[in-house]
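Appendix B. Extra example for self-study. Work through it before the problem class; the solution is given directly after the inputs so you can check yourself.
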Amino acid sequence: MFHLTDKAVCLKNVRFRYKGSNRWVLDGVSLDVARGECVAVLGPTGSGKSTLCGVMNGTVPLFLEGDLQGDVLVDGMVPAKVGTAKMAAHVGLVFGDPDMQLFGMTVEEDVAFGPANLGLDYPTIMERVHKSLVDMRLTGLERRAPYRLSGGERQATAIAGVYAMLPDIMVLDEPTSMLDPQGKASVFSIIKRLKEELGITVILVEQEVDDVLELADRVFVMNAGRFVLQGTPREVFGRVAEVAAAGVRVPHVVRFGTLLGAERVPFTLDEAVQLVESGGWLSGAWRDTSDDAGAGGEKGTTTTAGHTSNAVSGATSPGHPLGDVIIEVKGLEHRYPQGALALRGVDLTVREGEFIAIIGQNGAGKTTLTRHLNGLLKPTAGDVRIGGRSIKDLTAAQVSRTVGYVFQNPDEQLFCNSVEEELRFGPGNVGLTGEELDRRVEEILQDIGLAGYREVWPKYLTKGERQRLALASVVAMDPAILIVDEPTTGLDWLESLQIMDYLKRLHDDRGKTVLIITHDMNIVSLYARRVVVMAGGRVVGDGSPQEVFSNPGLMAKANLKPPAIAELSVRLCGQVALTPEEAVETLMHLKGAREGLQ
Amino acid sequence: MIVEYESKNTPIHSLDPRAKILWLLVVVVISVIWSDPVYLFGLAVSVFIFGAFARFPWEKLKGLAVFLTVMAVIITLAQGVTYTPAVAHLKEPGRVLFHIIPAWVPGVGPAWPVKLGGFLYGIGMTLKVFTVLVAVAVLGYVTSPSEIVQLIARIPKMPYQVGFIVSTAWKFVPVVQAQIRSLMDAHKSKGVELDRGSFVERLKKTSRVVSPLFANALSMADTLALAMESRAFGSSKRFTFLRPYRFKALDYVVVLACLGAAITSIAGLALYKVGSL
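Solution. Structure tokens for the complete assembly:
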């Protein structure tokens, strides 16, 4: 038994497997968290992070049943004995999707939900609601309906609702996974406040590694139900190869420092600049990136923070010849029936063989624009021509032969009873049958790595697999153009690379024209050759990733931030690099040139 | 017809939910007992006035309006052809107004005569359906699900959790509607012509959304239950309502007006056949 009740959380050799399963989702996890500490748990999907969160408030094994072994003590209590509802006043759990945890019709009502469940009296509830709203900076929004708030505000409301129950510990399970960059920034500022000003013990499960580095006191990397790395952020991210091997994205700035052979890896842009300017890297520096094979690096190909991918960046890949104009958008306006003008005169020309990323904040008009490209929406004014033909007189089903559209949420576009049936559905609708259909389905099953799952109900696949299947079910129709709405949202880094690499193969090997909508600037820098920036229903910028990321005015106008490596390379070399490898190469080139001059 | 609740500062929104529900009940009762289209038209106008005080977004009823127009034509013509009620204040309820197939159609015309009594009866039926559907939409717009929770929780021996189940189901109707739209869009994007073919074919194609919708709803229910439990739902036998409702002066006015209208219309019909055809 424990004698460490001064600790906020004490887990000792915890194992858990779900009812009916033989696999230990948690396989010997031990964790001590001191009061007021901020601990980050990183790791790929399926590594056991969410189960670990559930163990801390008792939803595992009380709600999600199974076999729990080992000792669990949270705020001095055993959650499985006390019960989730009663633990709520001690440990608050916040989930990734804000919409699934808001119960009130107004912000105020929602924040009051927890305290009201505790049966507190009215004045006490209102006192707590008021404090929560002030502390989470939500004052002024009390009477607003949650669905009318931005994503960041909705998640802040969810956090306020948990905080109003005055827990000592808050467990946040990927709280920014569904948010755009602005929403993520807002939620991270709240978590920082919880930790630094409000003295709450924070256990944060995240995929956004860059933000975690500055926030967490300690980092735990989880894989296959175990902690494979733990320590301070500096200790953990000093072991780049192991972090990458565990399936966690290594931030570009850290990767940059590692490539330079820095003894103390930089976490921030300032630290990286200081490293270069101090010359501390020169002695052991610029190891050939092929030395970093263990970390996934490979000179000559673009790598993504330690993971091998087939990414092409605008800077490093050889030029790909472009074909004729395939999409032509002229003066496109769209007004929704409710009255909102979502597009205000968009002009856009896309040539065959392009790989375009459309970026912008939520509400910028990205999805409204792309839904016109496959005929799901019709213009209020202006025109969209696909292959020279106006979409005005075509149905979405007719356009689908040329333009494949993959929605953000795979669960809203998978409706068949098996993986194979799902792949046959689209081609069957456009008249493909017989051996040709069999051959295509077989080829795609191999391509997306789901050949062993052909009879499986798609709902049983992981989110990453479902996302790949959703994409493949559209690819099976063999459209010339593929539009993918946020292909990596909610996926871990390895899953993101898998889906993006598949898109890249379709582009490179089969000549598909690809348009993606994304909030992830790392993905943009690694895969896109052209970036279209949208804001307020207009295209406000259009160019190569280098052109877009080196234009601070444009990025500010769209309320976006370039990837850290782009900012860093501009500061160090005066030009945009899209990967750490490219940044180091540019730096070495400049250094060589300077030495040549001397 | 469900129109999502919106929190607004109008006298109708601030009414006690019991007063609002009584209003709907009275509208339903009167629309059932009356059959004269003139009186029913008056009732419909009163519902519109009630909605106007609530600043109801009428544009949200566009879909309903299209549906009702089609229904109105069908019901009115069908009643006109098939039914000739004894109409107290009409001398000739059986007078033919026009023929659905006019005389100039060779071989068959004139056929299917539309008679005055049935025609008026059909208009009355249409107005009944129209009035009740609009009243339900207005009630949904002005009544927060949390008011429904309170109402249910006040039923003796009823656990407050039951009210939450009802209100959560109500609140997620728009979410499910959005999912249906997404699933249908996904079908169209995979080459399915949902809007083409016979009625049975279209029904068959659209029915494919049911299975994923059901699976998504189950998974959503699971997540919601987990999130509610994590917010101490059910930890205490007591739940403190944020704005416990109490009858105010306006509530008494509405209740008295509704009861007065109900009694008057029932008595008027029984004694003097007011509102009857």
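Self-check: Residues 249-308+564-598 of chain A form one domain. If your reasoning did not lead you there, revisit section 3.
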